[in-house]
C-alpha cells in the first residue's frame, strides 16, 4: 500500500549528488539524523556518505527500498522514476524543482505517465518532502520536529518549512508532515483520506492556498472531521480579488466567504495565522473534549484576568460567575481577600493548593478553565504547576494555562505539557483556542450541514432566456410561492383576468426580445378596471411591435412584505452556492449576506437566516411581528436544490422576495443559464 | 526635581528586611545586578548585604540618598516616610502592599499627608517599582530588561512584570519602566508629562485599565503624541459591561468606543494585545517615519507573501504594483523567473544582492517595505540580512523583515536589529505594525482633533423640563435649523398660523405636565384647513384639561429627508461625547454609530459622518443625490458645543434629523438636564 511505502519505508533511496551542500546530501543527513536505518545514496558515481552506502543503480537495491527520494536535476528525474518503477518501488518524493512551476508542464506530464505505468504514486515535484516522526522518516530539507500527534499538510514548501521550524522551537509534537509541492499526483485529497485511519495523528493542520475540486475536498474533509479535528489556514483570500456574488447587486463579498462557509459546513476549524494554527492544534492535541462554552478563569493578578475576560467575550465564550453554592464552597478554603467571581482572583498570594482546589471544585460548573499565573523572577512556579496538574487529573476537563515570569518557568511549562496541560503565551490565546475547540465539538454534535458531495451528471436542462411566465411556473413546480398571476394573450383576456386576480393589477410585456421590461415602458402599474386592462394590453402590444410578442403577465398588486434576496451563484471551486440577505441597502451597501455551499436543508437555511446582522429586522422590532422564518427557510432550501435538478443554471436570484408574517412570496426571479451571455 | 530623584538617584535606600527571599533583599539584589553604586539597606538591625552597607536610620544617610524604596511591612511605612522626609529625600517607591487595594484607605491617606508635608512624591503603594536602564536603576522585583528607547508605564504590576519578562526574552530595549500600583500620588498623568522631555525615550508603551479624569488625560496625551508616539493597551473593555449611549435607543455601544475615539482624537495608537504593543513599539523604536501607506513586499516564497498580502489589505495598507518603468529597471538585474509584481517574488533562488537591489530601487516608489525570507535549515541567512541592511541604509525608508529557518538565524536577526531593521515573527505582524505607524504619522500631520481640554466652570444653566417651543428656540439660537413653527395660544391663532405655515400642518400640545405627547393623543397630523386647526386646538385643550396647558406648537409637515440621529451623552471618564448615526434600525439594530469626545469642529464632524458603515446611503446610491454633508457636519459640531455653553446638560438628542440635498433640519429634540429624573 502506497501510504505504507511512503510513510513507513524499511529502506530509502536518495537520488542526486551527495557532494557537501547538495540537496541529496542534506536529505541523507536529515534521514540519518532521524535514525532511519536503511538509507542508500544512488548516483552515477555510486558515491556514498558516512554510514550510507552509495550505489549506481536502484535496480541493485530491489526489495530493500520502498521509498525513492529524488533530488537529482530535473532533466534526469524521468529516467530515475523509470528505473524506480523497474525496481518495484511504489512511492517517491520528488524534491527536484523545474517542472510546471517553471513552465515545464510537459516534463511533469511525463512523470505522471511513467508513474501510472508502474503503479507508482509520488509526492511533488518541487516539494519539501515527507516526515513521519513515528517511523524515523525525515525525508525532507526542513527542520526536524519533535514527535507528537499533529499532522501537517502544507500546500507551500516555504510555509511547511516555517511550521517545522516553529514546531521545533515551540516543542510542538508532530506525527506526519508532507508538503506536496506541485501536487501533480498525490495531493491534499489523498493525504486527507489517509489521515482518517492514521492512529498516530489526533489532529490535522493544513496550510492551503487554492482548492481545485471544492466538492470532492468537502466530502473528504467532512468525513475526516467526523473522526478528528482539522484546522486550516487558507491564504490568498484577498489576492484573487473580490468578485460579484449576486451578479446584479454588484460586488457583495468575495469568494473567501464561500470558502469560509464550506469549512464551516464540513466541521473544519479555520485559523487566522500560523501562530493560531499551532495554538489551536496544541489545544486539540493535548486536551479532552470541551463540551460547552462555559469557561472559568483562575488568576493571581487582575490585569491578565481582565484581558482574558475581554477576549473571551470577543470570541463568544461564556464566563458566568460560580453559583452561590460554589462560591460558598470556594470561600471555605480560599483566603478572604480572594475575589470569588469569574475570574477567580487568588491575588499575588495564590498558592498551588489554592489553584488546585479552586479549579478542581469550580470546574464542576464549567466546561473548561484557564489558569493564569504571573510570578516574579525570584519565586518558583513549580508548586503552582503541580496544583494545576492535580486539578486537571481530578476533573478530566480541559485546562489551559498561561504562566509568565519565574526562575523555573521552563521546567514548569515542560511539566504541564507532559501532563497534557497546554501553556499559551497569554490567557487571550488560551480562550481563543477554547472557542475554536468548542466550535468543532458543537458542530460534530449537531451533525454536518453539508451532504451532497458531487454535482449531478443527469438532470433537466433549462431552455435559454426563459420568459417570466415560464420562470413563475418553474418556481411553483419547485414549491416556491409566487404571486397569483395570469398569462394573457388578448386585451379581452387581460380584462377578464384582472377581474379574477382582483384590481388593481400590474401588467408586464412578455417577449424573449425584451429583457429589461421597465426600460421600454413594458411594466404598467395600478391598472384598476377592465377598460384600463384592455388599454394596457394594447399599449404593450404596441411597445413590442416588430418583436416576438408573446402576450402579457398580470399580477394582483401585493402588500409590501419585508424584502429579502435569495440567490444562487457558481463558485469556481465549490460550484453552486446559495446566498441570503435582506434586500436593498442591506445587501448592496452593508454587505450583510450569508453564503452556504448548496444544497442546504431547512435547518441549515434557518441558521443562515439567523446569522445575518440584520436578523432582528426579520424577528420584528418595536413590537413588529416576526416574519415566517420556517417558510423562508423552506424557500431558501428549495432554491438551493435547483442546480441539482436543472444542470445548466449559472446564476439565479429571487429578488425581491416578500416575507410576511404568514408565508413568503418570490415576487421576481431571474435565471441565467450556462449558454447565456 | 522629583523626576531626577526618582529616575536618576545617586544613592538609593532600601527599607525592609534583607533576609534571603524577603522583598528588600530581592530589590537590593536587582539594584546591584543593575550596577547601581550607592545602595543602602535600612532596617532596625542595620543589617547589610554583600557590598551593601546596613543602616538603622536613613537620617544617617542624609545627602547620600535621593530615592527611598520601601518594602517594609505596611504598618511602619508611614514612619519610614516620615523619616525620609526628615532626611530630605524627595522621591520614594512604595512596594509594600496592604493599603487601599486591601481596604486600608486611611493608611494610604496618611502616606499622602506625610509626603505633602515634606514636599515628597512617591510611586505606589502596592507597586512594582521603577527602572531606568540609562542610569543603572533597577528598583523593582521584576526582570531586568535590555537598555533601549521604549518607556513602559503600566497600571498593573503583574502586566508590568510580563512586559519586562517579554522584553528580556525578545531583546526589546527599554528606557524607563514604572508600574505605579495604587497610583495614590504619582500616576499616569505625571509619567506622561515627564515622557515629553525624556530624551532617552523614543516611544511610550502604556498598559492601562481605567481613566480617572479623561479630559486631563487627553490633554497630556495629545501633547505627548505631538512629540513622540504613544502605544496603548487598554483592558477591561468588556468587563465594565455595556451601557446605553443614546439613552432612548437602548444599548448601542459600550464605553470602549468612547475610549477608542478619545485615543484617536489624541493621536495615540491602540494595540490589541501585549504582543501587539511590543511589535508596534519596536517599529517606532527602530524605524524612521513612514510617510504613507504604500508598501512593497519582497519575498523568496509564495505562501508567506500571500499571507502578508492578505493582512495588508485587512489593515488597509496599499500594495500597488511597481510602475512600468520600475518593472523594467528591476527586470534588468532580477532573474527571469522572478515575479516582479507586489510581492516581488525572488523565488527560492533569491540572493542577498537581489534583496538589496530590489528593495533599494523599488522603495523609491513606496513608503516602506517588508522583506520576507524563508530559508532552509542548511542555508545561511547572513547574506540576505546584509543585502537588506544595505538597502535600508541607501534608501532611509522603513524596512521590516521576517526571516524564518536557517542555521545562523539568530545571528542574522541580531545584525538586523543592530542596524535598525526590526524583525517580526511574520510578515503579517510587520504590516500590522506599518499600518499603526502610518496612522500615527498621518494623524500627526493632519493635526489633532481634540482641543478643548477641560469643562467650563461657568456657563448658562438650562431650566429643567424645557418645553418644545423652548427647545426649538434654543436650537435656533445655536445655529441648528429647525422646521418653521409657531407657538399658539388660542384656536384662532392656530387657524391663522396654519395659513402662514402652509397646510397641512402638525399640531402638538404644549404642557410641562405632558411629556409623552403621543401617548395621550396630543399630536394631531394632517390638519389642512383653518377650521380643522381650530378644532384641533380645542381637542388639545381638552386633553390637557386639569393640567398646566400652555398652548400648542404647529409645524408645516416636512418632506421626508434621510433620517439621522445626533446625540450627546456623558461618559464617566471623558464627559460630553457626541454620537452620530443613521436613524432607526441603523442605530438600533446595526449599531452603526460613531463617537467623539466633544466638542468637535466641522472637519472632525465630517470624518465622523464618513466613518459610519452606512455612509454610502448619505452619499446617495442608485443615482440618488448626496445629502448636504457640510451642513450636517456643521450641525454635529454645533450640538457638540452645547455642554460647553450650558453646564447642566446630561443628555441631548436630535432625533430625527432630516438631511436633505440642501440643508439639514432637526425635526425633534430632547434635552435631559442634570436634575431631571
From TrEMBL, chains A, B:
PROSITE patterns: ATP_GRASP
Domain named ATP-grasp: residues: 472-508
Keyword ATP-binding carried by entry: yes
Keyword Ligase applies: yes
Database matches in Pfam families: ATP-grasp_5, CoA_binding_2, Ligase_CoA_2, Succ_CoA_lig
Keywords linked to the UniProt accession: ATP-binding, Ligase, Nucleotide-binding
InterPro entries to which the protein is assigned, alphabetical: Acyl-CoA_Synth/Transferase, ATP-grasp, ATP_grasp_subdomain_1, CoA-bd, Ligase_CoA_dom, NAD(P)-bd_dom_sf, Succ_CoA_lig_flav_dom, Succinyl-CoA_synth-like
PANTHER family from the UniProt entry: ACETATE--COA LIGASE [ADP-FORMING] (PTHR43334:SF2)
Name by which UniProt lists this protein: Acetyltransferase
Amino acid at each position: 500500500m502506497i501510504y505504507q511505502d511512503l510513510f513507513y519505508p524499511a529502506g530509502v533511496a536518495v537520488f542526486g549528488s551527495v557532494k557537501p551542500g547538495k540537496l541529496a546530501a542534506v536529505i541523507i543527513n536529515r534521514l540519518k539524523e532521524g535514525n532511519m536505518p536503511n538509507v542508500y545514496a544512488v548516483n552515477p558515481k555510486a558515491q556514498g556518505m558516512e554510514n550510507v552506502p552509495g550505489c549506481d543503480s536502484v535496480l541493485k537495491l530491489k526489495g530493500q527500498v520502498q521509498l525513492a527520494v529524488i533530488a537529482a536535476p530535473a532533466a534526469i528525474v524521468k529516467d530515475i522514476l523509470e528505473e524506480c518503477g523497474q525496481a518495484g518501488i511504489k512511492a517517491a518524493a520528488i524534491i527536484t524543482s523545474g517542472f510546471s512551476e517553471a513552465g515545464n508542464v510537459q516534463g511533469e506530464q511525463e512523470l505522471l505517465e511513467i508513474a501510472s505505468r508502474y503503479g507508482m504514486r509520488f509526492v511533488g515535484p518541487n516539494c519539501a518532502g515527507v516526515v513521519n516522526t513515528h517511523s524515523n522518516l525525515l525525508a525532507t530539507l526542513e527542520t526536524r520536529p519533535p514527535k507528537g500527534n499533529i499532522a501537517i499538510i502544507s500546500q507551500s514548501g516555504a510555509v511547511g518549512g516555517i511550521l517545522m521550524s516553529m514546531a521545533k522551537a515551540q516543542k510542538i509534537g508532530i506525527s506526519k508532515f508532507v508538503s506536496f509541492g506541485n501536487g501533480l499526483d498525490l495531493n491534499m485529497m489523498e493525504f486527507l483520506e489517509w489521515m482518517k485511519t492514521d492512529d498516530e495523528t489526533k489532529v490535522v493542520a493544513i496550510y492551503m492556498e487554492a482548492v481545485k475540486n471544492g466538492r470532492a475536498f468537502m466530502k473528504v474533509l467532512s468525513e475526516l472531521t467526523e473522526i478528528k479535528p482539522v484546522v486550516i489556514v487558507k491564504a490568498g483570500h484577498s489576492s484573487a480579488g473580490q468578485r460579484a456574488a449576486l451578479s446584479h447587486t454588484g460586488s457583495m463579498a468575495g469568494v473567501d466567504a464561500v470558502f469560509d462557509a464550506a469549512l464551516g459546513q464540513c466541521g473544519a476549524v479555520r485559523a487566522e495565522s500560523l501562530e493560531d494554527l499551532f495554538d489551536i492544534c496544541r489545544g486539540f492535541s493535548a486536551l479532552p473534549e470541551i463540551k460547552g462554552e462555559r469557561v472559568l478563569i483562575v488568576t493571581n493578578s487582575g490585569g491578565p484576568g481582565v484581558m482574558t475576560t475581554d477576549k473571551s467575550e470577543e470570541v463568544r465564550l461564556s464566563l458566568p460567575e460560580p453559583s452561590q453554592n460554589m462560591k460558598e464552597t470556594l470561600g471555605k478554603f480560599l483566603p478572604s481577600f480572594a475575589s470569588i467571581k469569574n475570574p477567580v482572583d487568588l491575588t499575588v498570594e495564590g498558592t498551588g493548593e489554592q489553584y488546585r482546589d479552586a479549579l478542581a471544585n469550580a470546574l464542576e460548573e464549567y466546561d473548561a478553565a484557564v489558569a493564569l499565573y504571573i510570578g516574579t523572577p525570584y519565586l518558583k512556579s513549580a508548586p503552582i504547576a503541580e496544583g494545576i496538574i492535580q486539578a486537571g487529573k481530578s476533573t478530566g476537563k480541559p485546562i489551559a494555562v498561561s504562566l509568565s515570569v519565574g526562575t523555573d518557568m521552563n521546567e514548569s511549562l515542560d511539566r504541564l505539557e507532559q501532563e497534557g496541560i497546554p501553556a499559551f503565551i497569554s490567557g487571550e490565546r488560551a480562550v481563543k483556542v477554547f472557542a475554536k475547540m468548542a466550535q468543532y465539538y458543537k458542530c460534530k454534535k449537531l451533525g454536518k450541514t453539508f451532504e451532497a458531495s458531487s454535482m449531478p451528471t443527469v438532470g433537466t436542462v433549462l431552455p435559454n432566456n426563459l420568459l417570466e411566465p415560464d420562470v413563475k411556473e418553474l418556481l411553483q413546480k419547485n414549491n416556491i410561492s409566487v404571486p397569483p398571476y395570469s398569462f394573457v394573450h388578448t386585451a379581452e383576456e387581460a380584462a377578464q383576468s384582472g377581474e379574477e386576480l382582483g384590481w388593481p393589477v400590474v401588467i408586464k410585456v412578455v417577449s424573449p426580445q425584451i429583457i429589461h421590461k421597465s426600460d421600454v415602458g413594458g411594466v404598467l402599474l395600478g391598472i384598476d378596471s377592465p377598460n384600463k386592462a384592455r388599454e394596457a394590453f394594447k399599449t404593450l402590444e404596441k411597445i413590442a411591435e416588430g418583436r416576438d410578442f408573446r402576450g402579457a403577465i398580470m399580477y394582483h398588486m401585493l402588500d409590501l412584505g419585508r424584502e429579502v434576496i435569495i440567490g444562487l451563484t457558481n463558485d469556481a471551486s465549490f460550484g453552486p452556492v446559495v446566498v441570503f440577505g435582506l434586500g436593498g441597502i442591506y445587501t448592496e451597501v452593508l454587505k450583510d449576506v450569508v453564503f452556504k455551499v448548496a444544497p442546504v436543508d431547512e435547518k441549515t437555511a434557518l441558521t443562515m437566516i439567523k446569522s445575518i446582522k440584520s436578523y432582528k429586522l426579520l424577528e420584528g422590532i418595536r413590537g413588529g411581528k416576526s416574519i415566517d422564518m420556517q417558510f423562508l427557510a423552506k424557500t431558501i432550501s428549495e432554491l438551493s436544490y435547483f442546480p441539482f435538478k436543472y444542470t445548466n443554471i449559472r446564476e439565479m436570484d429571487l429578488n425581491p422576495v416578500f416575507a410576511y408574517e404568514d408565508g413568503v412570496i418570490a415576487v421576481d426571479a431571474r435565471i441565467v443559464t450556462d449558454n447565456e451571455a
